[in-house]
Specification:
The complex is a heterodimer of chains A (about 600) and B (about 260). In chain A, about 25% of the residues lie in helices and about 35% in strands. Chain A contains nine helices and 31 strands. The longest helix of chain A is centred in the last third of the chain and has 56 residues. Chain B folds into three domains: about 110 residues, Serine Threonine Protein Phosphatase 5, Tetratricopeptide repeat, CATH 1.25.40.10; about 70 residues; about 60 residues, SH3 Domains (SH3 type barrels). Chain B contains ten helices and seven strands. In chain B, a hairpin with a 2-residue loop joins strand 4 and strand 5. In chain B, helix 2 packs antiparallel against helix 3, helix 3 crosses helix 10 and helix 4 packs antiparallel against helix 5. The chains are: A alpha+beta (about 600), B alpha+beta (about 260). At the A-B interface, helix 1, helix 4 and helix 5 of A face helix 2, helix 3, helix 4, helix 5 and helix 6 of B.
């Protein structure tokens, strides 16, 4: 029994390990779920002029999507300017971040504070720090003026242009613009600051994508060109001058290389890469600016302004669909309102559902689907409405108004009424007893009008419980877990201990055997020296049996010559010596001292070598 | 001898007091009958009071909570009705009548649940306690199998059953974690409760929560709870505007006494 190993003794640690391995991925996923998501909200400036704007950037690290709850603040308008996301896989570690950009427009001068607002990202809700800034009147010195003093002359090596600005525009009218930075081909350049607007009363949208690089011929010279697509939106009426700034570092050649060196006159060595590599350039930080352009911003006309107009300017289409169009009274219907086209989508708000006592409408949420830029695409709103009456046959027409700068007038789009089939509310009130109202008791009048949803009351009380609580707060739950764990641990400990004890016992037995064999060999040596072949051969047979009995797990006395011949190879020395001893015992064979010494040496070797 | 007589007197007095107390309190079946009569006669407020009395005196039962929910629904107190239905479902997750009434009242009040993805639908098959029970059952079975295997090695099927049990346990634990927020929610009991940006009454509202909306309270500041209302957003609402689904007999008892 001692030598027998149960499969469990070998399996238990493996099973425990397997259990841990099975659990680990789940704990890992949980860890990922709780992985730190952090948030930062920064303002591009803490002071700007009325009519100018500041940019609010909200960066969420560790999340792939986020819902930002921008607070409403009096005299401040937040213009959403898109969301960009970034994902990185570095050394097997995945990281992602989202940056949302808002342009802040102030309607009045003064000190403002954006209170902490919440962002839902990665399953957690984060809160920003409060942000403070000041807005001063246009007459006070502006940052733009300060910037212009720092302007560096690029000496005609590089310049910037803007296309698309018109001389007149309406407040809120989006002007798509193309901004191009030109650099002489012989110089290297690195953009350090993306296009920024100088001037009051306008908002420049962040560039829609990465800048494009190319080569252009401008006034007879070839330039390397970097271009951005963006949009400028006037936000304050009046005459304003605007310009676009782009920051760059130019890599200018230090001096002309000495002429006459024919080897380095080759075109291969005349490029900026070569100069840059050998350090033959000086770096010059420049701020390029377009020529200021005057734009007259016309306010939206008061005359003809439709009710419900929210400031949408552009050219839009409006469609409404409903799903389902056949319902029971009281069942919700989802209205999908799609406003598509071109214009300032940040001012496109959800069309109101007409107030009607037969309808109940819920708040709507909208999503903007861009067509590659911030001013074209579609904004889709979904609103749940509930028809209360079976007499309703149509979903009322909805209205969306905008100002069309091309027509110079307001446009109101009305959706077609959608047909609707409303069935009587499924009612099983037949069994309900509505009591007569007690005179003069308004509370009971309310009860009379009520209709309980369930028709039957339960007549049995069922099982009573002391509380509604999760199982993990119950003592018996943890007691059971503890009991099972203790049992498994006890089995594991017992199994390991037993294996240790078995190993120790085996070693003890082996040591004892070795000692007996050593003693036996000494006795054999003495018998050989004395010429006592009877004692010698009997001792040989005994030693061989002892040696093999432990290996074969048999009683020593039970081992016969037949066992040796069957289990050991035919030329084994042990078989030969055992056979000799048998012949002596049963056949009268006698050995002299020399033969006994020879046998003794062979026996010793065989006991050391053979199992 | 004198001490023994005194002890016997005290014992008799205690027994009499116990008997008198038991005689004064009516059995739950009688109270239930009375409440059902009130309900049937349209006296919903009185019915609700008696149902609450049963819950406070004898403990929580899915059936009584269902009846209480019906009484509130009849009074157009939809938030309270949804709360009691949800409490009933915590005790009897498979109660079809409760489930049907909850769906019905949610449809009536326009509180339809947002669309769920596959993972939410899968783990929504069972509630948190059922997932926990499944994990515990798996653990017990695994322990029994290993113990049996220790004493008498089992067949090869053992080596397939053990990993399956471990997968079941892990899945159940994950399911329980997923369902925890759903299970341990609170219900908005005031109509058109404003979800505020900050924990004070003059703070700007983020959204308006309909009565009966289930929210998850994440933290508390003074008399306000910061709640996650799912797609509606997160914000602060007054503590008095919501009630936790988890409750106890003692809570009902205290509320009844306070009334």
């Amino acid at each position: 029994m001692l030598g027998k190993k149960t499969p469990f003794s070998a399996l238990s640690p493996s099973l425990l390990l397997l259990y841990v391995l099975m659990i680990l991925p789940f704990s890992g996923s949980l860890a990922t779920a709780q992985k730190s998501v952090n948030l930062s909200a920064t303002l591009s400036t803490t002071h700007f002029n009325l009519g100018s704007s500041a940019t609010l950037r909200i960066r969420i690290n560790g999340a792939r999507s986020a819902e930002i709850h921008i607070p409403e603040i009096d005299n401040l308008i937040f213009h959403e300017r898109g969301q960009s996301s970034q994902m990185q896989l570095i050394n097997g570690t995945f990281s992602s971040s989202i940056t949302s950009t808002y342009v802040i427009e102030a309607l009045k001068e003064g000190s403002y504070s954006i209170p902490p607002f919440t962002v839902d990202a990665g399953g957690t809700t984060l809160t920003t720090e409060s942000l403070n800034f000041e807005v001063s009147s246009s007459s006070s010195p502006s940052n733009a003026a300060t910037d212009s003093r720092e302007k560096t002359n690029a000496e005609g090596l590089a310049f910037v242009t803007v296309q698309g600005i018109t001389g007149r525009a309406y407040t809120g009218e989006v002007m798509p613009v193309t901004i191009k930075a030109y650099f002489q081909r012989k110089i290297g350049a690195e953009i350090t600051a993306p296009p920024a607007l100088t001037g009051d009363g306008f908002i420049l949208s962040p560039p829609e994508s990465e800048p494009l690089q190319g080569v252009e011929n401008y006034q007879g010279r070839t330039y390397s060109v970097i271009s951005w697509q963006s949009a400028i939106t006037p936000i304050r009426d009046g005459r304003h001058k605007i310009a676009i700034d782009v920051g760059a570092i130019l890599q200018l050649p230090l001096k002309n290389r000495p002429s006459g060196n024919r080897l380095f006159d080759d075109d291969f060595f005349s490029n900026d890469l070569f100069d840059s590599f050998f350090g033959n350039v000086r770096q010059q930080k420049v701020k390029m600016q377009t020529n200021p352009q005057t734009v007259t911003v016309i306010p939206l006309p008061e005359k003809g302004r439709p009710p419900g107009f929210d400031g949408a300017v552009g050219n839009f289409d409006f469609t409404v669909t409903a799903q389902p169009q056949a319902v029971a009274a009281g069942e919700p219907i989802t209205l999908t309102m799609t406003i598509s086209g071109k214009g300032n989508f940040d001012r496109v708000s959800v069309p109101e559902f007409p107030a009607d006592e037969n309808w109940k409408s819920y708040s709507a949420n909208g999503t903007f689907f861009s067509s590659g830029n911030s001013y074209s695409g579609k904004k889709v709103f979904e609103r749940a409405v509930v028809a209360k009456s079976a007499a309703l046959t149509a979903i009322p027409s909805l209205r969306f108004s905008y100002f069309d700068p091309a027509r110079k007038s307001y446009v109101t789009l009305n959706s077609d009424p959608l047909s609707l089939h409303v069935e009587e509310e499924e009612s099983a009130d037949e069994n309900i007893v509505i009591p007569p109202a007690k005179p003069g008791n308004p509370g009971d009048v309310k009860e009379k009008q009520a209709s309980p949803p369930s028709m039957q009351t339960r007549v049995t009380s069922g099982d009573f419980h002391e509380e509604i609580a999760p199982l993990f707060e119950r003592t018996w739950f943890w007691f059971t877990v503890f009991l099972c764990t203790a049992l498994l641990l006890a089995l594991a400990v017992y199994s390991l201990t037993r294996r240790y004890r078995l190993n120790t016992l085996e070693q003890l037995q082996k040591r004892k055997l070795q000692h007996m064999i050593q003693t036996g060999l000494v006795t054999l040596h003495e018998a050989a020296a004395a010429g006592d072949d009877v004692a010698f051969l009997t001792g040989c047979r005994h030693l061989i049996r002892l040696h093999l009995a432990s290996e074969w797990n048999m009683e020593p006395a039970a081992i016969s010559l037949y066992d040796l011949e069957w289990r050991l190879s035919g030329d084994s020395a042990l078989v030969e010596i055992f056979s000799t001893a048998q012949q002596h015992a049963y056949g009268g064979l006698h050995l002299n001292s020399r033969q006994m010494n020879t046998l003794l040496i062979r026996l010793r070797d065989a006991l050391e070598e053979e199992p | 001898m004198k001490n023994l007589a005194m002890f016997l007197c005290m014992l008799a007095a205690a027994l009499i007091a116990l008997y008198a107390d038991a005689a004064a309190g009516r059995p739950p079946s009688q109270l239930l009958q009375e409440a059902n009569d009130d309900y049937g006669a349209g006296r919903f407020t009185e019915a609700a009071q008696v149902y609450r009395q049963i819950l406070g005196e004898y403990g929580l039962s899915a059936e009584i909570l269902h009846n209480l929910g019906n009484s509130y629904a009849a009074q157009q107190r939809n938030g309270q009705a949804i709360l009691q239905y949800l409490r009933g479902l915590r005790l009897e997750p498979g109660d079809d009548d409760l489930q049907a009434d909850l769906v019905l009242i949610r449809e009536k009040t326009g509180l339809f649940a947002p669309q769920q993805n596959f993972r939410d639908r899968f783990f929504g098959i069972l509630d948190m306690n059922q997932w926990l029970l499944s994990a515990l059952a798996g653990y017990i079975l695994l322990t029994v199998l290993l113990v049996c295997h220790f004493f008498r090695p089992l067949t090869q099927s053992f080596f397939f059953i053990v990993p399956l049990l471990i997968i079941l346990m892990a899945l159940s634990c994950f399911g329980a974690l997923q369902q925890y927020r759903v299970w341990d929610g609170s219900v908005v009991v005031d109509d058109r409760t404003r979800l505020l940006l900050s924990p004070f009454s003059s703070a700007a509202p983020v959204a308006v929560l309909e009565e009966g909306t289930v929210v998850f309270s994440e933290k508390r500041h003074g008399e306000y709870h910061y709640v996650d209302a799912g797609t509606t957003g997160s914000g602060w609402i007054p503590a008095g505007s919501l009630e936790r689904i988890r409750t106890s007999r003692l809570k009902f008892d205290q509320d009844n006494a306070a009334q």
